[in-house]
UniProtKB/TrEMBL annotation:
Name assigned to this protein: 6-phosphogluconate dehydrogenase
Gene Ontology BP annotations: D-gluconate metabolic process; pentose-phosphate shunt
Keywords (A to Z) from UniProt: Gluconate utilization, Oxidoreductase
Top-level enzyme category: oxidoreductase
EC code: 1.1.1.343, 1.1.1.44
Superkingdom of this protein's organism: Bacteria
The species this protein was found in: Plantactinospora soyae
NCBIfam families reported for this sequence: gnd_rel, PRK09599.1
GO molecular function annotations of the record: NADP binding; phosphogluconate dehydrogenase (decarboxylating) activity
Protein family (similarity comment): Belongs to the 6-phosphogluconate dehydrogenase family.
InterPro entries the UniProt entry points to: 6-PGluconate_DH-like_C_sf, 6DGDH_YqeC, 6PGD_dom2, 6PGDH_C, 6PGDH_NADP-bd, NAD(P)-bd_dom_sf, Pgluconate_DH
Keyword Oxidoreductase on entry: yes
Domain 6-phosphogluconate dehydrogenase C-terminal residue range list: 159-290
Amino acid sequence: MQLGLVGLGRMGGNMRERLRAAGHEVIGFDRNPGVSDTASLAELAEKLAAPRAVWLMVPAQYTEATVDGLIEVLSPGDIVIDGGNSRFSDDLPRAEKLDQHGIGYIDVGVSGGIWGRENGYGLMVGGDEQHVERLMPIFDALKPAGEFGFVHAGPVGAGHYAKMVHNGIEYGLMHAYAEGYELLTASELVTNVPGVFKSWREGTVVRSWLLDLLDRALDEDPELADLSGYTEDTGEGRWTVDEAVRLGVPLNVITASLFARFVSRQDDSPAMKAVSALRQQFGGHAVRKN
């Protein structure tokens, strides 16, 4: 099958290679001419046979402008697939805008990171059944071998919604491992913290790919001395918590893990200064001063 792919960074570039290895023809466009197959979106459209399918792997803040650019060069019967980390609430308005030009739309939550080229990508898809069915050869090539790794989650927006919740869960899982790591390093008894994590990789109920990756990180830097504790968030965790508030669903772990990332960015927490001041005022407790 032929596919246009816009955005050839760490994810998009590896997806292109996985698809080509599976026998598909992939024509890519990227603002970096060193990796791009075409010089413009217009040239990309010219090289694709109708009906076209164009997959976007661009940062969310550039998605809408890219879609607008594609509207100018695509034709009725074509399909746009957004595999970036767009907010699910942007999908339906985007689909309606494309539909005015006779262009279909699919949203796909993509998981797999830099390892997807080798291991395959988890795909969570939202869109009309006919559009999804048309793209199944592409989905089959990108997903891992076997029965898992793909779901048609529902109509337009469902794919990005599923990926949002996936990433919220990821926040909680990562933070649980991180808290366990901190407690082990604080213990007077455990002298081989990396070895403990390595032992958990088989035969335990906490084994996972995230645990494997933490073990890999500890092999490279047993005390994580070269890393800063400053931790960014890319939006999905916030959106997950927003939805929990809207629907009245308690997300204690995911919310706490998101707030922990905020704490990581404070060199000297104003809130904790206030707590120290209150403890000193009501109880005369000793405080540390800068």
